[in-house]
Every structure is written in structure tokens, then in C-alpha cells.
Amino acid sequence: MGDSSGSVSIDMEALSPRGQEHLVETTYGPVCVAVCGDPDKPALITYPDLALNYMFCFQGLLFCPEASSLLLHNFCIYHISPLGHELGAPVISVDAPLLSADDLADQIIEVLNYFGLGAVMCMGVTAGAYILTLFAMKYRQRVLGLILVSPLCQAPSWSEWLCNKVMSNLLYYYGMCGVVKELLLKRYFSKEVRGNAQVPESDIVQECRRLLCERQSTNIWRFLEAINGRVDLSEGLRKLQCRTLIFIGESSCYHSEAVHMTTKLDRRYGALVEVQGSGSLVTEEQPQAMVIPMEYFLMGYGLYRPTQSISPRSPLSPTRISPELFSPENMGLKLKPIKTRLSL
Question: Where are the transmembrane segments (predicted)?
Fold first, then answer.
């Protein structure tokens, strides 16, 4: 609010990546939503990957100065947590029915209605990206655009299904044991940050390992069961007419999945950004690589106008980005598949 001297103070708590949490009652059970920013601004909803909460899944991105100014100053962010994934979540009752991916997508519309939101921008990571894509297909009028990180769009392959089943059984009978943690860390991160016998784990992996120890294993099991039972969305992607920006880490185990999804989207509305030196969790490993593509993606909505052509703090430069990204077509209504590489 302004004071008598004409100066302006900023509510830093409202802009903090950790927002005010609301427990929203839905048909499918209570869901925790953390709200960050000014509710009068356009809405951006986020959905994290399996076993993660918004603070870890999007913390690196929102603590990046350029991304913070781009997102927190232009959106009110609504971080949706999968059932029982929020900090301090209680164990979901064994009597509660298992939810499907369809149920989780339908739960989002109830969250939007609770906050009185219209059409929203969506950002999701891997399993969360699948839920938001399914939501966009079911409720097209409520989605402005999709920003997807290492997304899933096909039914699980036999190898993924088997790996998930092993994790599911271990979670159910033994909790968050060492094997499950290693499988999840491999899912999230590249080899470079996971370390080896000669190189220690990076701080981000150590922090994630600590976070996983605090998770309620049966709650994670429920989300995993929903994702492992997902259906193939490929055929419906062509009809998805909201613009879609896809980020994929070069070392991600879902690299082929993201490429497949790009080929199934209408070429006028989809763009692929490949980030070198990153696993699936680009938001934590290489958040700076997301800034410039998001700047130009959002310019087409009139939501952000950069004051200079390239952010001086970003590791990307014009010579490292496909010229297609700078075309008027891609800054407006049409996006072509492109690749962007970021060197470590």
C-alpha cells in the first residue's frame, strides 16, 4: 500500500514462494492449496510430481530471480498438492477409496470453483503434468495454456509399470525404504547431481532424500497407484488447442515421452525445449533454462513484457536458442517444436 510520501511498500510475504495454505474440501477429499501473490492477478496453478510437494518441486524455479519476477509479479500462484502430499499431512484413512487420474483432474475443477477462478495457466511436473494435461482435455474452457516439465502422456510401458509396481508394493509393506528413495531420486535427477563412488551427492539431492523420509508412504502409494493406472492421452492431444510449452531434461528417463507428446500436439500450439545437463526435475536442476522460453511464451498472452531482450542473469543467450522461438509466430498464437540446449 502507498503511504503519504508516495512511496510503495511490497508485501514480501505475499510474494514468497511459500504461500498461505488453504484446505479445500472436495468430492474426492480435502486438498491443500497454497496461494502466493495477489488474487486479482491472472491465476497460475501448479501440480508437483510423485512424492514431492510444491516447496521442493518448484522452489528452485521460484527462487531464481528472473523466474520470480516473471511469475510471482505477474500471477497469483495456486500450488495444488496431491492428496496427502502437503507438509505435515496425516495418513489418509485405509477406508478412503483409491482415486484415479480422472478423479484427480476433476478435483482441480472444484479447487478452481472454490477460489472463483476462470481460465488459468497450468504448470506441472511429470505425474503432475499428466494430471494437468488430462484436466485441460476435460475442461478446455478453463485452461489458458500449459507449461509442462518432463510430462507423461502415454499409458505406462511394461518396464515403467513393473518398476512402479515394485515401488508400490515396497511403499505399502515397508514404507519409504532405501530402494524406493533411490528409484525416486533416479526418476527426478540426472547422474551428475546424484553422484557416485567418487563424487558426492549434490546438496539438492541430499535435501530431496531428507524430504522423502518425511513423506507419508501410504499417501504416496495412493498417488502412484493413480498414475500407474493412467490411460493414453495421445489421440486427444491434437484437439488440445491451448498453447503448450514443454521442457525436458536431456538425461530424463521420460525424454522419449516428451518428444512423443510434442509430435501429437497441433504444431501451431506446441513447443519443445530440451535442457542439457538436467534430469526430469528441470525446475530444480536447471531453473534458469526455463526463464527465456517462458518469457516469450507468455508474451503471446499479454501477461509479460520483458524490459530488455535477454535477462542479463540468465545462462542462455540468443545464439543458444533456436531462431524459431523469436519469430512473431511463436511470440503470438503459434508455436513450433524447437530444441534449446543449455551448457553446464
Answer: 114-137
pTM, rounded to two decimals = 0.86
| pLDDT under 70: residue ranges of the chain | 1-18, 305-344
Place of cell 474426492: 28
- The count of other CB atoms within 10 Å of the CB of residue 183 is 14
Rounded to whole angstroms, the Cα distance separating 34 from 203 reads 25
Q: Under a CB-based contact definition with an 8 Å cutoff, are residues 163 and 183 in contact?
A: yes
- 236, 266, 226, 30: which is closest to 133 by C-alpha? 236
State how far the Cα of 37 lies from the Cα of 14, in Å rounded to an integer: 5
Q: Which three cell numbers stand for residue 47?
A: 501440480
Instruction: Calculate the CA 317 to chain-centre distance.
Output: 24
**Residue 195 identity (one-letter amino acid):** G
Burial (CB count within 10 angstroms: exposed 0-12, middle 13-18, buried 19+), residue 16:
middle
**Extents of the domains making up the chain:** 20-154+232-300
* H or E segment to which residue 79 belongs: strand 76-80
- Provide the pLDDT for residue 116: 97
Three cell numbers, residue 121: 495457466
Residue 33 near residue 111, CB atoms below 8 Å: yes
Per the CB < 8 A criterion, the answer to whether 201 and 194 are in contact is yes
Question: Hey, which CATH number is domain 20-154+232-300, 3.30.450.180, 3.60.110.10, 3.40.50.1820, 3.20.20.100?
Answer: 3.40.50.1820
pLDDT digits 0-9 by tens, 134-158: 999 999 999 999 999 999 999 999 9
